Amino acid sequence: MIDFHDKGHLFEELYEEYGLSLDTIRKWEQTATVITIDHQGTVVTNEQFI
């Protein structure tokens, strides 16, 4: 779902296509969002940070 959204699909389109709630899709997106890249070049997502 996150890949689809990153490629330009709206949350509403994903909801209609796959039947997942908008809140679920938004939470997944927020959890996977990159918040920083450390000094070694490692990607850290919001979920990993928490």
Descriptive report:
The chain has 50 residues and is an alpha+beta fold. 56% of the residues lie in helices and 14% in strands. It is built from four helices and two strands; from the N terminus they run H-H-H-E-E-H. Strands 1-2 form a two-stranded antiparallel ribbon. A hairpin with a 5-residue loop joins strand 1 and strand 2 (43-45). The mean pLDDT is 83.
List its salient traits:
50 residues; alpha+beta; 4 helices; 2 strands; 56% helix
Compact overview of the structure:
The chain is an alpha+beta fold and 50 residues long. 56% of the residues lie in helices and 14% in strands. The protein has a two-stranded antiparallel sheet.
Quick one: how many beta strands?
2
Q: What's the total helix number?
A: 4
What spatial form do the alpha-carbon principal axes imply? elongated
- What's the gyration radius in Å? 13 Å
Quote the average pLDDT: 83
Neighbour order of strands in the largest sheet: 1-2
Q: Biggest sheet, in brief?
A: 2 strands, antiparallel
Poorly predicted spans: none
